[in-house]
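Colleagues,

Please find the record for the two-part complex below.
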Amino acid sequence: MNACDVGRERVHAHFDEIPDAPASESLRLHLQTCRGCRELFDDLAILRDTLRARPRPELPADDLEAVWNRTVRTSRGGWLDGRKRAAVAAILVTGVSLSTLWLLRGPSTPPGPTAAEIARAEAQADLVLSYAARALAATRTAAMHDVIGKKVSPAVRGNVPADKRKP
Amino acid sequence: MKMRTVPLILAAVALAAGRAAAEAPAPSAPATYVDGSVFRTLIDEDQDVVEVDLDGPTLQAVANSKDDECGKEVFANLKSVHAVIGTVKGPADGALTLVKQIDQKLSASGWKRITLIKDESDFISVLTHLSGAKIDGLVALIFSMDDKEIVFVNLAGAIDLNNIGQIGNCLNVPGLEHVPGAK
């Protein structure tokens, strides 16, 4: 950025921020040595003065009301503008989804079986084990008597006492 | 964002959460669980049928209700107890064929048959599944040709044959204390 670029920025800043204030010392020094910036300064001063010299008709009442409604009343009258509304909605969505996940997947304590269910389950378990035990008992009986020796697996036959085996 | 879209989003989120929960993996069955539903199709519904599916908290509650002599330890170590007991509705030969097929299939898939008894009236097969040196599964297949009674039993979990005698005493099944493998 050269000295002229800096000078132009100072010129614009002078008219944008404090247009009626005198130019700063550094700006005046630059304008004395830079013709381009001086012309810019003069043009902007003419533009400012021309605009100030123009008559200022009053804004029609309807237009003023419309502008008022779309600016001041909208921002103050509505309790939420678009961005705030979106933020609230996002927070709600996040909260509800987290709550839902917690309810569905979180640790829960399912109710245990009732006394009647336990009694029924116990009877069923006893029945099942009695059948399993009966099958194993049949194994023993068959092995001891060696009635079907060749049909019993060698592992079972290995448990038959020697004096009970067939010669 | 329009406010009326918020309920739609909430509904979508709730639906997605519900679906995620529904798709969550269910508690897996024990490795030595054997599906006995095929036997259910053989059974005559007009006669007595017993179908047992015990696992989880119910089985734990059964274990807690037992005293030491009646197999508390046995039940405490079991993960599931499944059984199908009933009377075959069709010809006995067809059921016997199916029982033999299941027996052979189990035997070919890592189960060790410790008992196979076949005669004119009965078919009894007991298979165990070993995890290392310990039994972690048992299947008993019993079929009586005379009364066409079929029994399928599957126990999953640590099984100690030495405790079988204790259960037999409790359940009044004589001779269990002499079962091979039991001391």
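Chain A touches chain B through 47 residues (CB under 8 Å).

Comments are welcome before we finalize the supplementary table.
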